[in-house]
Design brief:
mainly alpha
Length: 82
């Protein structure tokens, strides 16, 4: 379950939600809980940096996560020995 900061107003949550929906539509994928959690976290970070419109947030999310594969965490690489 997504835990939005309680200080957010409904309009703020709507802006974030619209940006995330746009990311899914742009990438032609079905939402998953894990992907949504990552996108919400990124959107909240961007929102707190002053990006306040759904269009701006969606553009930044699409740029940062250019495909559904960019949301995957490669655990074996992160624990690889060098």
């Amino acid at each position: 379950m997504i835990d939005f900061n309680l200080s957010l107003q409904t309009k703020d949550v709507n802006v974030l939600s619209e940006a995330i929906r746009t990311w899914y539509q742009h990438n032609h994928v079905t939402p998953t809980e894990r992907a949504t959690q990552l996108l919400c976290s990124a959107a909240m970070d961007l929102y707190s940096q002053g990006h306040r419109t759904p269009e701006e947030l969606a553009t930044l999310l699409i740029t940062r996560f250019d495909s559904p594969y960019s949301l995957k965490i490669n655990a074996t690489t992160s624990t690889a020995r060098h």
